[in-house]
Write a structure and sequence with these properties.
By secondary structure, this protein is mostly helical. The chain is built from six helices and four strands.
């Protein structure tokens, strides 16, 4: 879901409750594990409140569900309060997203990984000291080339390699 430019994935988990049923308990355990890894947790409570043992964390959004029946905050049936919920999600996630980026293509990920490896290699060489100036310079050049490929700068060697890799030219 795109919320004002924020890529957000919403997951609806199994109800969180105490149970003696082994299969249902496994579902609850998986839901709790997934919730612990989430960037933001939204709890829609019923009349019983939060499940026993569940401790709210900073940033959690806790609302009363079934607004159409019990006068709560949000109704899945009528949509009442959904706009307010979405505004709260945006308000909570926007400050976190300002300093983050989303890598959407494997090519981007690969370029960033190559740049990181080259910079780590340069850092190790610098920490060792000695006469490794040329090696450090080459590592930095590799990092720059990786980042240039990320932003779309293409050099002649890359272009020729791509052409020869994909096309048969003359025989």
């Amino acid at each position: 879901m795109d919320l004002q430019g924020l890529p957000v994935t919403l997951l609806d988990t199994a109800g969180l409750r105490q149970t003696d049923d082994i299969v249902e308990a496994m579902g609850v355990d998986r839901a709790l594990a997934r919730a612990s890894d989430a960037d933001l947790r939204v709890f829609l409570m019923d009349d019983a409140g939060l499940p026993p043992g569940l401790v709210p964390q900073a940033g959690d959004i806790i609302l009363q569900g079934k607004a159409d029946l019990a006068g709560g905050d949000v109704s899945g049936l009528t949509g009442q309060g959904v706009d307010v919920l979405l505004d709260r999600i945006i308000a909570e996630l926007s400050p976190r997203a300002i300093s983050s980026a989303v890598i959407t293509h494997q090519r981007h990920r690969s370029a960033i990984e190559r740049a990181i490896l080259a910079l780590e290699s340069a850092q190790i060489a610098l920490e060792r000291g000695g006469e490794a100036g040329e090696l450090v310079a080459e590592d930095i050049r590799r990092a720059v080339r990786a980042m240039e490929s990320l932003v779309g700068k293409v050099d002649v060697e890359t272009l020729l390699a791509e052409i020869f890799a994909r096309f048969c030219i003359g025989k």
